[in-house]
Amino acid sequence: MENKIYDVVIIGGGPAGLTAGIYAARARLDCLLIDNYGINGQAVSTDIIENYPGFPDGIGGFQLVKNLKVQAEKFGLKIISQEVVFVNYAEKNIEIKTDGKIYSALSLIAASGAKPKDLGIPGEKELKGRGVSYCATCDAAFYKNKTVAVIGGGDTAIEEALFLTKFADKVLVIHRRDKLRATKILQERAFTAFTNKKINFIWNSRLVEIKGAQKVESIIAEDILTSVKTEINVDGVFMFVGYKPNTEYLKNILKLDENGYAITDDEMKTDRAGIFAAGDCRKKLLKQIITACSDGAIAAFSAEKYLDKLKGTEYNKQK
Ligand code: NAP
Question: Atom 30 (ligand 1): residue with closest C-alpha?
Fold first, then answer.
């Protein structure tokens, strides 16, 4: 156990956590950011980010998050690579237990993001890493001139399907409805790719099984309207059916919604004094890098105000 109490510990090295770190470090809070990998999050594994303001030609996800890290460290943020396994809450003494140590803090910003959901169908777990993937940016290059299936119809599925067309010969998008959820500009690109025979859609269908001995060989898709099952030969399956929040370590401490997202107010305060949540682990309307950064900035500012009060140094910030 470290023999000190941090003003604030931030959990998570994605855009929300790193932005919170930039603001906390500039506020001269004694601050520590803990993340399994140092930097992290869905943005890191996104090939190109086109909707983050200020980059008219887009910016690589890894580059953007790396820039945030460099910026945070420039202001003095300390970042360590450890996995948080447990948090023990007591007002004015929050203990954060990692796989290596226990840290104490007066306040905590949970910015631990979300991880891809799985479907829990036969073959998925068994063939994970052997044809079943949750990240096209990471694995697309293995599928040069091959056939892959993409499951889902949201922004992630369509963005990743488009990325896969650079490598695979055939990209089959399997969606449980007959309309995509993805934003319109991505839909336009997907339909252009369809016209150019780079993407094929299998509508109103759900994936029921992934088959293969050593690696993925085929999938079974079921037509939801007719219940007819079809076996399709594929070399890879990319699952993009949404995310679930990384909030297991908070479940006995905070109020979470029915899906496990942390519930906060507009100031990123949770129902526990001194604990704030930011980014994709928080229940909110729009999950984007820009809103993650915004949450992080607000959470750090709220933590600063909380600490001012706690330490009896509150002053009128409006002056
Ligand atoms: P999402 O928006 O929740 O979409 C998940 C997709 O998977 C939906 O099409 C959904 O179908 C389908 N799905 C869910 N459960 C399923 C099941 N059991 N079986 C079959 N299909 C299932 O998730 P996401 O696309 O990962 O996006 C997550 C968040 O990140 C969103 O807020 C998104 O806008 C944001 N994001 C933004 C960008 C960007 O701005 N460029 C990129 C990536 C992600 P239904 O449509 O029928 O519900």
Answer: 287
Pocket test for ligand 1, best of 45, 134, 176 (most atoms within 8 A of CB): 176
CA 177–ligand 1 middle distance (angstroms): 12
160 and 234 together in one domain: yes
Nearest CA to ligand 1 atom 28: 242
Residues with active-site annotation? 135, 138-139
AA letter at 91: E
Whether 293 maps to a domain, the answer reads: yes
Kindly report the pTM of this predicted structure: 0.90
Same domain, 153 and 74: no
pLDDT in tens, 199-256: 999 999 999 999 999 999 999 999 999 999 999 999 999 999 999 999 999 999 999 9
Q: Name the residue range of residue 198's domain.
A: 132-239
CATH code of 84's domain: 3.50.50.60
Domain termination site, one of 239, 255, 275:
239
